[in-house]
Amino acid sequence: MTFKYANDSDLHAKLIADVLSQYPDKAAKRRSKHLSVATSEKNANATSECEVKSNIKSVPGVMTIRGCAYAGSKGVVWGPIKDMVHISHGPVGCGQYSWSQRRNYYVGLTGIDTFVTMQFTSDFQEKDIVFGGDKKLEKVIDEIADLFPLSNGVTLQSECPIGLIGDDIEAVARKKAKEHATTVVPVRCEGFRGVSQSLGHHIANDAIRDWVFDKKDIQFASGPNDVNVIGDYNIGGDAWASRILLEEIGLRVVGNWSGDATLAEVERAPRATLNLIHCYRSMNYISRHMEEKYGIPWMEYNFFGPSQIDASLRNIAKHFGPEIEEKTEKVIARYQPFVSNVINKYSPRLSGKRVMLYVGGLRPRHVVTAYEDLGMEIVGTGYEFGHGDDYQRTGHYVKEGTLIYDDVTGYELEKFIEGIRPDLVGSGVKEKYPVQKMGIPFRQMHSWDYSGPYHGYDGFAIFARDMDMAINNPVWALYDAPWKDPAWAADAG
Ligand code: SF4
After folding, report:
1. Is the pLDDT score of 43 beyond 50?
2. Which residues does UniProt call coiled coil (predicted)?
3. Which ligand 1 atom is at minimum distance from the Cα of 67?
């Protein structure tokens, strides 16, 4: 079945009914709450409503794409802080599979003063599980102090067994911080906590609050236009692209959390005037804390695609008054010809193409308008680990009739893609190859498929080029089996 129109509510509803009909009753009842079709908003300015159940346990036995709390802390929030060593505390596997991080670009000398793409683990063996791993952890911290004297601290990223055997990592952290006169942050992000990586983000935020803020006498001269960029992980250089724009409008970025970040940037964050949140899901907790404790307001922004970049820059500038607003208008005007060139070049090749998304963080909503700036349409979107407030925000971005799927199972996603046959799917590496084998172009939207940056006006040009390369790649015309080509059949006699 293929759709004639992009957002066909009836057909999307039928697809949901079809996948649910394949489940046992109990599973169907549970999954039905996570699948929906966006309806029109009755009262506010939003274009539609996306009400689905979210942030609850995946159904046992289905294939979920979620990660664990350890992944949320080590892989997202703490891992990119470049001048600290992050120990994967527990058996070797969790660290082995999270080696190298998520393309969080950084400046520095790896192994000397930066450690992002290195992997450190306490490598638990059976005797550590039986007798406890505290002594081993102490030894690891001592070795790190010896081998990497320019590291500015250590975090202890707990894997599942640490919580199960009850090791007192907080006591180890206090003892070793004193001995080495450094920062040691214990993070209770054991993978079994919560229902997805989302709780790991929250736990990691709380560890910043409890183990970093207000622990040192910070020597830092703050200014009136100082901002922290919160929740930009510098995938493919995104944070650098964002920083260029913010500095062009006259702001000073004093901290970027946590792509290319140093511990000092985290420590001095409470001195900023404003927190700008990029990934709301992973870092809203610490931003709310900074608002409550230090009186720093926060605002969300979207630097994907020119329409949202313009709006976000204007919104940020409003906070600082006429001088910054004037500069902002000049910056927007200066980029206008560049943006028009990008749109004129790519929209004839991309206009009308239909896209399905399934990602995490902020991308299921924030990239929607970047596609629309190129004349493309979003026909389905969903979050791996979103909460109710993410889906509420999604209503402002998607059109009525958009298929919405929360924590979508492997089976459901495949059936939705089969039914809709979009022109492009944007999701993760686990989805990439099955989708391409279905003959559908794909972009890996966790790591930008080894491209990027996608933030900012410059990033929009790269985004447009990448989508064009995926969709209009000549390989898709060669996809069918040769015997389906009448010319081949004729030749073969
Ligand atoms: S769930 Fe536990 S064992 Fe699995 S990767 Fe996460 S921390 Fe490691």
Report:
1. no
2. none
3. 6
Round to whole Å and give the CA distance between 349 and 357.
20
From the CB of 377, is ligand 1 less than 6 Å away? no
Is 160 noted as a catalytic residue in this protein?
A: no
Mean pLDDT computed over every residue of the chain: 94
**CA 209 to CA 199: how far, in whole Å?**
15
| pLDDT tens-digit map of 83-116 | 999 999 999 999 888 887 889 999 999 999 999 9
- Please name the residue ranges forming H helices in 21-63: 25-32
Which tokens is 328 given? 């902002």
3-state helix, strand, coil in the chain (%, to 5): 50, 15, 35
CA of 188 to the centre of ligand 1 (A): 12
**CA of 193 relative to ligand 1 center, distance in Å:** 10
Q: Encoding tokens for residue 150?
A: 């320019």
Report the DSSP pairing between strands 226-232 and 424-427.
unpaired
pLDDT of 493 higher than 60: yes
Whether 191 is in the pocket of ligand 1, judged by its Cβ within 6 Å, is yes
Residues 166-221: pLDDT tens digits? 999 999 999 999 999 999 999 999 999 999 999 999 999 999 999 999 999 999 99
Of residues 273, 280, 236, 240, the one with CA closest to residue 256: 240
Residue showing tokens 């893609």: 417
Quote the pLDDT of residue 6: 47
Domains and CATH numbers, the chain: 9-62+351-450 (3.40.50.1980), 69-211 (3.40.50.1980), 226-330 (3.40.50.1980)
How many other C-beta atoms can be found within 10 angstroms of the C-beta atom of residue 451? 18
268 classed as catalytic: no
Q: 38, 68, 370, 461: which one is catalytic? A: 68
pLDDT tens digits for 391-403? 999 999 999 999 9
C-alpha of residue 405 to centroid of ligand 1, in Å = 25
The whole-angstrom distance between residue 341's C-alpha and the CA centroid of its chain comes to 29
